[in-house]
UniProtKB/TrEMBL annotation:
It comes from Pseudomonas izuensis. Keywords: Coiled coil. Residues 288-332 form a coiled coil. This is Lipoprotein.
Length: 609
């Protein structure tokens, strides 16, 4: 939860609102709801539309941020591990080398759409963007046009137009999950069947990219003994103001002026990571990036807005000037960072933007076709001029040695009683490498289940006699569904066992120059004979001379026919494999997970009459 919202037309940005008082969370929540109601009422009294919009934007954002702060403060401290946000940078000799890898590792995939009138284009990046810190430097990517097979160039437009009769290039309709995906839309003609294969196909995508690489990155390692101390390295300094159980308060500063090339580009030079006593990185749950004094300033500006009768240019200039004056007085920046778990040590890193390298490049990327399944016999090359490592692989592959106890401890139990006629108990666990190798031949065995009432002390009491149709167990999905309409008494407990599945995995490490029959390496592509190494039983990971796992770009199965058996699979890597690790499922065991679950109480008034 790292909120950064524009609060006024002057461009104020906040992260989370820091409250000066600390009543109980319940009282704060009631107070916040009252404050929200009062604010909405005050908005109704503002007649000038410009003033109303400005007050609504600033005041509404402050309330939203206060709500987020309340959520952070009241969140239980439950340990959750994350990845090293700096891992990708540690593989490259300089920030600029990381930038070059990002740009040169980008390519575009041609993907079929479910519609005869659409072709999807998927830009594939060498780094994952699933976390805010996944790519560390300010960057921008702008698509401009697509060139078709008939040499025609179609300009990019930000939205698909229903009235445009021609071919269009616009963001994909699925851009919420893949924000850089694009769609080539062909014109729809009522009553006329269209064969998309006869349409001019996209062959290259044009655009431009810009990345700002800092002069350097420096990391400070801090513990509780550093509280109140300022640590300095050349022009960079960090002060640990406070280290709580699951949060840290930090002031930081770069005494050198910001490089002029940056201009108005917003920067976030701070990366804070925490480890617990096990040495593992904790995931972040949110941050506050303004001091109480800064928050008070924004609140004073809101109060001045609310005292106005109308918005004016003179008043807007006054607010802008006040903001500039206030910002000049802020010599240091502040952040309060929350983590999911108790903190043992901190790693506070600063990106030094006092000097930068700005890389701008015009892109003209060929559009490549790699279907997950193909009947083509020829192997397409996909050898990109970059090396990218898979930093998630070591943790993921721990699942190859998963024990029965570890599997059981990973189970979490959830309930749903909103519909008393289909109440549910669900047993789930985080997906691991073990799940990937389970295959499809399951033997769930027996899944006994019994429902019980409770005594006056809330303890398990007597079993309830039930007809078979009163409940249903789905052992493979790990769910129990029960219909309270068919229960003679209200159940309070459910007791039984549910099956879990544990693969036995054999790991081997092989020199890439001495591969067994059925495995072949063609440049950066591993070719696997699926008759020798069936896909459901085998997985393959590659390393180069550094000893790190190479990231897989994609995989293609070459099949005998669309419905026929697989012939061979091709796995493409970012880099040249010199060593392979093979993982074979040799056995599959059923593990019975015994449980006693206290049932949530359903609203009995919702039962069918």
């Amino acid at each position: 939860m790292d909120l950064r919202l524009p609060l006024t037309s002057a461009g104020i940005c906040l992260a989370l609102l820091m409250s000066a008082c600390s009543p109980s969370d319940e009282k704060r929540e009631v107070s916040l709801e009252e404050k929200t109601a009062q604010f909405e009422k005050s908005l109704d009294a503002i007649a000038d539309p410009k003033l109303k919009d400005a007050v609504a934007e600033l005041g509404g954002s402050l309330l939203l941020l206060e709500r987020a702060q309340l959520k952070l403060d009241s969140k239980p401290v439950v340990t959750e591990y994350g990845e090293d946000a700096l891992a990708i940078l540690k593989h490259y000799p300089s920030p600029q080398a990381l930038v070059d890898t990002y740009i040169n590792g980008l390519f575009v995939l041609h993907k079929d759409s479910s519609s005869d009138y659409l072709t999807d284009l998927q830009p594939v990046f060498p780094f994952n963007f699933s976390t805010p810190a996944a790519f560390l430097f300010p960057h921008g990517l702008e698509w401009q046009s697509v060139t078709l097979s008939n040499k025609r160039i179609i300009a990019f437009q930000p939205e698909w137009s229903e009235t445009d009769p021609g071919i269009q290039l616009s963001p994909s309709s699925s851009n919420l999950t893949n924000p850089d995906d694009l769609t080539v839309a062909y014109p729809f003609i009522e009553g006329l069947d269209v064969d998309i294969k006869k349409q001019p196909q996209p062959v290259s995508l044009q655009g431009k990219v810009e990345v700002i690489a800092p002069r350097r990155l420096y990391s400070f390692d801090l513990t509780k003994k550093d509280v109140g101390q300022t640590r300095t390295n050349d022009n960079l300094s960090v002060t640990l103001l406070k280290l709580g159980n699951n949060y840290a308060e930090i002031e930081f500063n770069n005494s050198a002026p910001q490089a002029p090339e940056i201009g108005e580009t917003p920067l976030n030079p701070l990366i804070v990571q925490a480890r617990d006593a096990t040495g593992q990185f904790l995931s972040r749950s949110g941050s506050i990036n303004e001091t109480a004094a800064q928050i008070a300033f924004y609140q004073r500006q809101l109060a001045k807005m609310q005292q106005q009768k109308a918005w004016s240019e003179e008043f807007e200039k006054q607010l802008d000037e006040e903001q500039r004056t206030f910002e000049k007085q802020q010599s240091h920046r502040y952040s309060k960072v929350y983590f999911n778990g108790p903190i043992d040590t901190l790693e506070v890193s600063l990106l030094d933007f006092s000097a930068v390298t700005v890389t701008r490049k015009d892109l003209n990327l060929p559009i490549r076709r790699f279907d997950r399944h193909t009947t083509q016999k020829n192997i397409q090359p996909l050898n990109l001029p970059v090396v990218v490592y898979d930093d998630q692989a070591p943790n993921w592959l721990k699942g190859a040695t998963l024990t029965e106890d570890q599997l059981k401890k990973a189970v979490s139990i959830s309930q749903s009683v909103e519909d008393p006629s289909a109440a549910r108990v669900e047993f789930t666990h985080l997906r691991s490498f073990n799940d990937e190798l389970l295959g499809t031949s399951f033997n769930p065995g027996e899944s006994p289940v019994s429902f019980f009432t409770e005594d006056s002390k809330g303890k398990r009491y007597e079993p309830i006699e039930l007809p078979p149709e009163a409940y249903q167990v789905d052992p493979l999905r790990g769910t129990i569904t029960y219909d309270l309409n068919l229960f003679p008494e209200t159940p309070a407990y459910v007791v039984g066992s549910i099956p879990l599945f544990l693969a036995t995995v054999d790991k081997q490490s092989i020199d890439a120059h001495q591969l067994p029959k059925g495995l072949d390496l063609k440049d950066n592509a591993l070719v696997v004979d699926l008759k020798v190494f069936p896909e459901q039983d085998w997985r393959f990971y590659a390393k180069d001379d550094s000893g790190h796992y190479l990231k897989e770009i994609l995989a293609v199965n070459h099949d005998a026919s669309p419905e026929g058996p697989g012939l061979f699979a091709v796995h493409y890597f970012y880099g040249q494999p010199t060593r392979l690790e093979t993982y074979q499922r040799t056995d599959l065991a059923t593990v019975q997970y015994g449980y006693e679950v206290k049932l949530d109480k359903a609203d009995m008034s919702k039962l069918a009459q």
